[in-house]
Amino acid sequence: MVNTAVVFAVLVAAIWGAESEYIEYNTTQRIVSGKINVHLVPHSHDDVGWLKTVDQYYVGANNSIRGACVQNVLDSMISALLEDKNRKFIYVEMAFFQRWWRQQSKAMKIKVKELVNSGQLEFINGGMCMHDEATPHYIDLIDQTTLGHQFILEEFGKVPRVGWQIDPFGHSAVQAYLLGAELGFDSLFFARIDYQDRAKRLKEKTLEFIWRGSRSLGSSSQIFTGIFPRHYDPPDGFTFEINDVSPPIQDDILLFDYNVQERVNDFVSAALAQANVTKTNHIMWTMGTDFRYQYANSWFRQMDKFIHYVNQDGRVNALYSTPSIYTDAKYAANEYWPLKVDDFFPYADHPNAYWTGYFTSRPALKGYVRVMSAYYQAARQLEYFKGRNETGPNTDALADALAIAQHHDAVSGTERQHVASDYALRLSMGYAEAERLVSSALASLVNQRSSSHRVNPVTDFQQCPLLNISYCPPSEATLVNGKSLVIVVYNPLAWNREDVIRIPVSTGQVFVQDFAGKKIESQLLPLSNATLTMRKHYVRAYIGKSPGGDELKYWLAFPVSVPPLGFSTYIVSSSKQSCHSSTISKMYRSEGSANNNKSIEVGQGNLTLLYTADEGKLAQYVNSRTLVKTSVEQSYNYYSGNDGTDKDPQASGAYVFRPNGSFPIKSNHQESLTVLRGPILDEVHQQLNPWVSQITRIFKAKEHAEIEFTVGPIPVDDGIGKEIITQFKTTMKTNKTFYTDSNGRDFIKRIRDFRTDWDLQVNQPIAGNYYPVNLGIYVQDSSMEFSVLVDRSVGGSSLEDGQMELMLHRRLLHDDARGVGEVLNETACIANKCEGVTIQGKLYLRIDPIGEGAKWRRTVGQELYSPLLLAFTEQDGDNWLHFSPSTFSGIDSSYSLPNNTALLTLQEFKNGKVLLRLAHLYEIGEDKNYSVTASVELKKLFPNKKINKVTEMSLSANQERAEMEERKLNWKVDGFTEEPKVVRGGPVDPSKLEVELAPMEIRTFFIDFNPLQTVTEAENHVAM
Ligand SMILES: [Zn+2]
After folding, report:
1. 141 CA to middle of ligand 1, Å?
2. Which residues have CB atoms below 5 A from the ion given as ligand 1?
3. Per-residue pLDDT reduced to its tens digit, 783-832
4. Do 471 and 541 touch, CB atoms closer than 8 A?
5. Is pTM beyond 0.90 here?
6. By the 8 A CB rule, do 984 and 1001 touch?
7. What separation in Å is there between the alpha carbon of 164 and the centre of ligand 1?
């Protein structure tokens, strides 16, 4: 009856001339204690590339794929905020915001700055993109965040307070403590966790908690974390983009379908439902989703009305809010919160949908990102040594390209093909500019001394970005035309370094000298057919023309020794007499004779690998120094990708790994093994089938084996998608336990078919045990530990005791229905002929006595991440170039960083400030010698400069560390038991200038030099 009365009243009012008039909505509401507060947080989730490229999303191009234009979002959101000062909005992706900002008028910039100052517009997260958390390296995460945070600081003087990782597909420990707490964030929010975990947390009201991501740094880098009850969109019925179907509030009495009370009821019941699963009387509604607010008024109009009418109703309190305001409210509630350690991998949204495929998807892009990341670190150092140049070539374009490549649909491999190509193109353009910078920086360093000695100043160096596939024009050509090849070898690590380099040469009559003229022992290794095929095809795919080089015969390998942050120079010349020449490797072919019972021994240093003579299979690992001797086998297998035609239509795809059977890849060759032996290294070449081959290298001076695998084109003519793995089997009793790294930093203990936080129901015994591997994976028993390190991020697991496996490549024929709408079937095309892409990559394996493995993982891990940078030039015969100096170290020539520390960043900012980041490489308890506080002497890092002031900063260098610590919220943890005292390095004494680093600590500094006391160039002490 009530309804009839209302209708009647409305009709009567209308007939008698009641007016439909302007309603002033009261949007001023703030938090009200004692009520359920519904924090409405307007946001737009703008992927920095996914179905469209970053620029297509920004300008709204290619809208047939998806109607999305970020420019519309920013334009309309700003006008909507200017209309009502109570409205709020958060913005997250600085790659988009920068694109918009640089095109705004002065007047508009002033208005936007006012919006930021008043808190109406708040930047949160604030990196260039919302990065992926499984597949990036932590240095890339730091760099991309720093880039965005510095922009916000420069333009707005603001420091973001909140982490907003709402979409990434699982969450890492490094995100919580490093890219969260160490940035000074007060909280972190996201949406995606395992469906079983979510069900339990909803029941127990534990969607919000305190996360301690680091064992070593414990409570000193914990963060308040909130998981959304469902996803990052609003509750059902509250989405208001112009095409969305939620009913708007209709409050004009002259119109039909007046629904104010009905909609208020909907709002209240959705709020109560959420309050039911949330601690405290504050709940957050994420008002927006992907690319929303293209017409912002359609959202704000509705939220204005809801706030007005819901607060008139009075059962709950609705307000415009931000995650910062929400965090402060949670803190003010003075609650106890549960504790969470480790991470949120792997993520499943459904019993058969483990998002563990993307750990490996697009392995070529993942590898390229890693190579570019390392190059960027080295180029930035050289840019610092040379002095930053705003007009000349610099590293900015590479920094930008790398930053957006960390997006959760970029390096993750979950974007469409044309978008993956766009990321790669940007990286290659950034590289090209950085390459010019590196060449000119090296030229200026080798010509540093007074010009009187100089005969031939070097003005140009060439580099070989395709050296990995044996393409290096300067090394191939120089020796045949009678000239000598000069190689400058730069070491981006702050340690002395001994390594072996390999370059392709066209003649066997060569020898190597250091710059003092001393002959260096070297070895020639004939190029395999697999290598030459790869070279021919992929050089053409990359540069558009044939590589030539039919003369190309050998890899020339020789040892180099390079000072910290410095270079050494080597000369390769033609020899007239063969007795002076480099040693040509001896070749041995195993014909796979079953009669021969003797095993084949490879390796001439401490490490020996034994292969079976009959099948040519790896059988045993022996280290004569450590006395480790154990059986180990390696094999290749593939999983057939589920095509989604069984009861559950879930296919294996770009995101999801859903295997449907495992199949061995057997060698079908007569000639199963070729061994090359020489003074520097031994190589074992194995061709398993036409599309899987590998070369295992055992260097005389190293105690690990390097496995270079070549996988592809994966055949799919049988209509079956395939996911290729390699596995290592030992007899070690590893008790279901293995360890994988978090973004290349902390190692996290994994137990097969087990989760710490809930009682796991196992549905996918393979996919559900896969974890991201960025640095490495290891297993251990009571006497040994077996580690494998990787050269890019891959998925990995230990599915049986003593076993480890890594997924190297995937080629699939079905979409997995998570939005990308394209199959993961990468091809490489030449002249319109396409074939499945081939992946060449490296694994490094070593078995140590128990307790000894960390040293190798950490030290070699740094070397793998930061390979030596090679630059080439030539000289005429004996007419020696006068490099002055021929060897250089950017730090004091007597100094090297302690073995347990690393220099992560040495960078000159645009404003001339010098940024230094130092890291401890070990966790507490990881190594008996190295898991202790270390000390770095800044005076020796900057030997030629007078340090005026050292200011410790937050991780992204946007605030002083001391201020950040002072502002830190002190959360109360449920059932809190005393943790061992957390150790951190103390303040830097301005006279001693020594930086202490406790286990896993990363410290960031601005260094001010006294310009008056800078040592002049002529007086510069450079090591000769
Ligand atoms: Zn996204």
Report:
1. 16
2. 47, 167
3. 999 999 999 999 999 999 999 999 999 999 999 999 999 999 999 998 88
4. no
5. yes
6. yes
7. 11
